């Protein structure tokens, strides 16, 4: 048993039972070990959850970085969509990710920020746009994942909190609309550069 095996099994457990039901006792049972054995790899459950959050982000963390000459708008949109897709890959993915610190991803974040600044986005605006898009994405996926297990008792599909007869909101369409607002709000702050944007 190594750290990677523990994290992989913990993520499988997450997909089966949800974040609230993940416990080191259940995880130890699945791995066929005594619960204290897990503390060799993770001192606390918080440490385990942080490692799970990092591993769950692997698809987004391995996405191509922007290249010089790429259009910053197209890249920003795709980067945020990639983040959303990755959060949706795991049950309670947004809850697992919320509050985690991307310590293993700092170099990639710096390179993304440098790309935006090199593309003409003012540094403070680039920082706030990345923060806003990240939090918007986590919140959107959190709502989507909370609603996916719900629905009305009669099976009509009305989401939680919607009055009877109000059609449910398509989460992807709502996400795309919000993401467009972020990019459209940022665009006027970026000086034109010979037509390249």
Characteristics:
Tetracycline Repressor, domain 2, Arc Repressor Mutant, subunit A, 197 residues, mainly alpha
Topology, element by element:
Layout lengths: L2 H15 L6 H8 L13 H12 L1 H4 L10 H17 L4 H5 L8 H13 L4 H26 L22 H16 L11
Helix pairs in contact: 1-2, 1-3, 5-8, 7-8, 8-9
Overview of this structure, please?
This protein has helices at residues 3-17, 24-31, 45-56, 58-61, 72-88, 93-97, 106-118, 123-148, 171-186. With 197 residues, the protein is mostly helical. The protein has two domains: 3-55, Homeodomain-like (Arc Repressor Mutant, subunit A, Orthogonal Bundle), CATH 1.10.10; 58-189, Orthogonal Bundle (Tetracycline Repressor, domain 2). It is flat and about 60 Å long. Residues 150-158 have low confidence and may be disordered.
Q: What is the CATH architecture descriptor of the largest domain?
A: Orthogonal Bundle
Helix content: 55-70%
Number of strands: 0
Largest sheet composition: none
- Overall pLDDT: 88
- The unreliable regions are 150-158
Number of domains: 2
The CATH H-level superfamily of the largest domain is Tetracycline Repressor, domain 2
CATH domain class name of the largest domain: Mainly Alpha
CA radius of gyration is 20 Å
Order of helices and strands: HHHHHHHHH
Distance between the termini: 51 Å
Form type: flat
Short description:
It is built from nine helices and no strands. By secondary structure, it is mainly alpha-helical.
């Amino acid at each position: 048993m190594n750290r990677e095996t523990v994290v992989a099994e913990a993520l499988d457990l997450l997909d089966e039972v949800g974040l609230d039901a993940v416990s080191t006792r259940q995880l130890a049972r699945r791995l066929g070990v005594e619960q204290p054995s897990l503390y060799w790899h993770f001192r606390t459950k918080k440490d385990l959850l942080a490692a799970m959050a990092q591993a769950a982000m692997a698809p987004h963390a391995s996405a191509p970085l922007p290249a010089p000459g790429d259009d910053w708008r197209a890249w920003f949109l795709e980067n945020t969509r990639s983040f959303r897709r990755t959060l949706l890959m795991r049950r309670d993915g947004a809850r697992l990710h919320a509050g985690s610190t991307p310590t293993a991803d700092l170099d990639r974040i710096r390179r993304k920020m440098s790309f935006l600044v090199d593309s003409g986005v003012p540094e403070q605006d680039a920082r706030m746009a990345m923060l806003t898009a990240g939090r918007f994405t986590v919140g959107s996926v959190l709502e989507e994942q909370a609603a996916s297990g719900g629905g009305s008792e009669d099976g009509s599909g009305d989401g939680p909190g919607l009055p009877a007869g109000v059609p449910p909101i398509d989460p992807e369409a709502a996400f795309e609309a919000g993401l467009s607002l972020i990019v459209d709000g940022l665009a006027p702050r970026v000086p034109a550069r010979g037509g390249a944007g």
